[in-house]
Amino acid sequence: MPKEMTSRQRMLAALDRQEPDHTPCSFMLFNALKSSCRDYAEFVERQVAMGLDACVELPPRPPVVVNDYYNLHGLPVSYDPRVTIREWVERLPGEEWPIMVKEYHTPAGTLRAEVRKTPDWRWGDHVPFLDDYIVPRSRKFLITGSQDLEALRYLLVPLTEAEIAAFRAEAEAAIAQARRHNLLLTGGWGIGADLVGWVYGLENMVYASFDQPEFLQQLLDIIAAWNRQRMQVLLEAGIDLYIKRTWYENLDFWSPTTWRRFIYPILKADVELAHERGVRFGCLITSKCMPLLDYFAELGVDVLIGVDPGEWDLAEAKRRLSGRVCLWGGVNGHLTVEQGSPEEVRAEVRRAMQVLAPGGGFVLSPVDNVREDTPRSRENVQALIDEWRRLTGQG
Asked: What's the mean pLDDT in 113-134?
């Protein structure tokens, strides 16, 4: 058994597929706790007090977030200063709900989005730029074809020096907190095909991978170049782990062949850039990825974040990736932690630890989030932590 480690050492050992002093437990997302905190620093402190191997994420994301890029955690998203925006609401024949219209007027033309304002729409009469809510409610997506790509570039511009300076100033306290508690420092989130879904539509993305491959490649390349500029800023901040959201890069939306053609080369360049800076690279992906596991290992991805026991074959994933890629997850957040019983939680923790922990390369976590702050959820979170502590000999 290795000697006692700090939390950061423990997490790094797991990410490097080594055996730590004991399996770490770090919640990949924990909105139920975060929403009850006054700021991000308190969120970290409360996780430390719970005995978790908390990560400190750059830039630190506050408990309440209202912005035009809500689903893209991380650095700010701003437009070319020449872009102007108009928004209004229309009632159209044959449409059950009001239609919110948003136009971005750029030097290369106008981009127009039309979104149905359903009763559960969360943004008033406003249409954000990057948000999951847009996808199922869109009447017209922002991008419809290659004629829109030059205009899109004006919405995906590099960070300004002032934005970079503001990020660095904001990060100082979070970095100090990570150093004080010896916690893993992460940065993110990166983006690729998920952004295609927001501006072009997920169904359209699937069709384009077969019918308009040249256009789709151009769109992905524009996003990849923009993301890599932002990635550089985070890598320079001294993070331990760079995280990219790849939820929409699974086999719900790609065949293994199209994934190999469109996604693999971009991920390869991203991983290489991180590794050149001595930073580990992780992908957020929770389902429909078992046939891709060998690709992730081949690419050098250090950790797959989101190992859901309802979606993954845990034993097969461990067999294929042991010593090659760290696995982060093992317990279902919604069905088990939020809706299950303490006994079910404990049983799922035991199975995850039995299958995934031997030999190291495993981080225990609910997948992908614990959102509900209810008596049942709180009891089950404690059951998860208690069972983890018992199994790892922490008392």
From this structure: 96
By CB atoms closer than 10 A (0-12, 13-18, 19+), residue 337 is buried
Angle at 57 between CA 379 and CA 52, to 5 degrees: 30
pLDDT digits (tens, 9 = 90+) for 249-285: 999 999 999 999 999 999 999 999 999 999 999 999 9
Q: At what angle do helices 264-276 and 213-235 cross, to 10 degrees?
A: 10
Enumerate domains of the chain plus CATH numbers: 7-76+157-391 (3.20.20.210), 84-146 (no CATH)
* Span 92-114, average pLDDT: 97
3-state SS track over 15-66: HCCCCCCCCCECCCCCHHHHCCCCCHHHHHHHHHHCCCCCEEEECCCCCCCC
pLDDT in tens, 331-374: 999 999 999 999 999 999 999 999 999 999 999 999 999 999 99
CA distance 301 to 272: 9
Tell me what the mean pLDDT of segment 231-238 comes to: 98
Q: Measuring CA to CA, which residue among 75, 243, 274 is closest to residue 167?
A: 75
Q: Is 123 exposed, middle or buried (0-12, 13-18, 19+ CB in 10 A)?
A: middle
59 preceded by a cis bond (ω within 30 of 0): yes
Token digits of residue 381: 């979170």
Q: How far apart are CA 247 and CA 289, in angstroms?
A: 10
Asked if residue 139 lies in contact with residue 116, where contact means CB atoms within 8 angstroms, the answer is yes
CB atoms within 10 A of CB 392: 17
Read off the pTM: 0.96
Amino acid identity of 170?
A: E
**209 contacts 262 by C-beta, under 8 angstroms:** yes
Side by side, the strands of the sheet bearing 280-284 are 55-58, 184-190, 241-245, 280-284, 303-307, 326-332, 362-367
